[in-house]
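job 3f2a | input accepted
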Amino acid sequence: MKVIVCIKQVPDINVWIEVDPFTNSIDTEDMVYIVNPSDVVAVEAALAIKEATGNGEVILISLGPERVRKALRKCMAMGAADEAIHLRVSASDHLDVFKTSQALAKAIDSLEYDMILCGDRAKDMELSGGQVGPMIAEMLGLPHVSEIDQMEISPDRKKAVVHRKLERGNREVVECLLPTLFSVAPGLNSPRYPSFSSSLKAIRSEIRKIGLESLGLESGDWGDRSAVTELLKISTPKPRQKRIFTPESHLSASERINLIMAGGIAEKKGDFIEGSPGEMAEQVVEFLVKENIIDKK
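job 3f2a | predicted structure (297 res):
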């Protein structure tokens, strides 16, 4: 089976991202990039299919500037070193989900495949709702199933049975003919760690570069008119105001000082009971009767 996996290089959200207020753009000089986590899950799923069939082939494809080649090599180091394709664009290009899907679909249309795998959504575009996978499927005229967390391929390799999560804990089982595009959820598998030998092989492996002009996207198809979204503004989250504790004025000076030093956390007061287990049980009963919680009989 030939499985195509679409991967994306995204900023590491655990590293602080600086926004230039003068240019209204993200400062990319010190930015750290990683492979989109759910795309790594898709690569692992493709490798599992390849190992199960015995004669499979995994083809990686990614759209982006020159730095995307590092992401491709990281996935190739996992074992997906059959073929890697880099769709070259400029780092300054604004790639919305439609333009990204359009370029990927054009490139995939010229390839042979039995299945296409994508991550469910990109970490840098959570609000897009994972639209790239369904858009590629629509442009290629393929069926699409999203958010799958379990997959089984039929022995004749013509059908696939997938499980997907729904809201409120419900699940859905879908059987579909291949070729199909699947968007995988993070729970599908646990990606493997690259071995040293496979990492060396990935470094030496060739990555095929495809220019957008060869896909017929250099002219109006790739111009501003093809974008369906427009980036208006980038801003950092507003800082949360720290709540300042102010003690009540009717308290004494010492009580207010103690509350300020404790950060506004007052010491909890309560009654303590002591004695043998029988004596403490009697005290508890007396308290419950006194508070009219139980009736004394």
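job 3f2a | The CA atoms of residues 56 and 122 lie 26 Å apart.
job 3f2a | closed
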